[in-house]
Amino acid sequence: MDDYIERLRSGALKLYALEKELPPADAVRVRRKFVEEETGTSLDAVGAFSIGLDPVVRKNIENMIGTVQVPLGVAGPLRVNGEYAAGAYYLPLATTEGALVASVNRGCAVITRAGGADVRILRDGMTRAPAFAARSVVHAREVAAWVTEHLDAIREAAESTTSHGKLLGLAPYVAGTTVFVRMEYDTKDAMGMNMVTIASAKAGEVIERETGARLVALSGNLCTDKKPAAINLIEGRGKTLVAGVSLADDLIAALLKTDAETLAEVNQRKNLVGSALAGSLGFNAHAANVIAAAFIACGQDAAHVVEGSSCITTVERVDGGAYVSVTIPSLAVGTVGGGTGIETQRECLGILGVGGGGSPPGTNAKKFAEIVAAGVLAGEISLLGALGAQHLARAHRELGRG
């Protein structure tokens, strides 16, 4: 080990090159020891882990030195009445925020007592939007027209790169001499970013060759990936879902310690008026909390929490209670690829019965999305109830204290 560390220190060997000379376990150990000596920090805890290294260093991480462990809890049982998820589930949540799992767990109890959350997927399509440079605004208009008229040729090129992905459609957008082509794909059980990127590159070659427009960026930010964007809120990206449940007055009183009128007012003044005044793209209490914790537990790309946070929560006063719903326009999830194959994350997907590819393809990812949406609804109900009952500060003192 000392020889490798000396070569790293002298610059004769690069950190990223260790796996070329050593098995993954040894490469990680040498790299960690080097960082310990360079920084004067013990990394014993970082170096203690149970996941296998070979696939991780090939697919998920570079310059690996160990793992960071996040506490894992479960909330449930949560009854879901979806088209793909139908039953009671224990939702794995990985977080360091005290009170979060307890809050979602209470929301799960409310939903389950009410008969379950109805969940439906409204749209399912992962997007990529290459940016092309035209010679003039006239040329830009011609490029946009050609793209619209030649969907079949673009589809054939895109789908030649994948055995699973399907190009569902596309839409051109013009800004001056820049033409964006927002392509939408069915990616089955994969979240699909790699799939749609590779497919869009091939489609971009066809557009460039046939129109004379120059491909400037394979992702032109109109996708929109990992950034808050109104286009995702309006058009959707990944899975667009709605989840709702009818809560009776006596259930609200017994489990949330408040009433339907208060629940509706808190939502209206906080989630709708407050968010509007702030210029927020999310009209919810804390949807990102639940999405982030579920994503970390289940091997999703945590940066896609940004899109998932653009959730709209509504509370309507109805006879005998309240109807609470969430609309999640952009939930990017998958059950194959990415971090879903890591042992600990695979076990969490297993808790939900959604690990790996579904039969038929795509059903596992849809089931997972429906469960997450129901979990977001549970989190919204519980937090709105805590605010209405003036219990929020007390809960954080008892469960989230430093």
Give the SSE map.
Elements: H1 2-10, H2 18-21, H3 24-39, H4 54-59, E1 72-81, E2 86-94, H5 100-113, E3 117-128, E4 131-133, H6 137-149, H7 151-159, E5 166-175, E6 178-186, H8 193-211, E7 214-217, H9 230-235, E8 238-248, H10 249-256, H11 260-278, H12 287-297, H13 305-308, E9 312-318, E10 321-331, H14 343-352, H15 363-388, H16 392-399
Parallel strand pairs: 1-3
Antiparallel strand pairs: 1-2, 3-6, 3-8, 4-6, 4-7, 5-6, 8-10, 9-10
Helix pairs in contact: 1-3, 5-10, 5-15, 7-8, 11-15, 12-15
What distinguishing features does this structure have?
globular, Alpha-Beta Plaits, 402 residues, 16 helices, 10-stranded mixed sheet, 3-hydroxy-3-methylglutaryl-coenzyme A Reductase, Chain A, domain 2, 45% helix
Describe the protein in words.
The chain is an alpha+beta fold and 402 residues long. It folds into three domains: 2-59, no CATH class; 72-124 and 232-399, 3-hydroxy-3-methylglutaryl-coenzyme A Reductase, Chain A, domain 2 (Alpha-Beta Complex), CATH 3.90.770; 130-217, 2-Layer Sandwich (Alpha-Beta Plaits), CATH 3.30.70.420. 45% of the residues lie in helices and 21% in strands. The chain is built from 16 helices and ten strands. It has helices at residues 2-10, 18-21, 24-39, 54-59, 100-113, 137-149, 151-159, 193-211, 230-235, 249-256, 260-278, 287-297, 305-308, 343-352, 363-388, 392-399; strands at 72-81, 86-94, 117-128, 131-133, 166-175, 178-186, 214-217, 238-248, 312-318, 321-331. Strands 1, 2, 3, 4, 5, 6, 7, 8, 9 and 10 form a ten-stranded mixed beta sheet that branches.
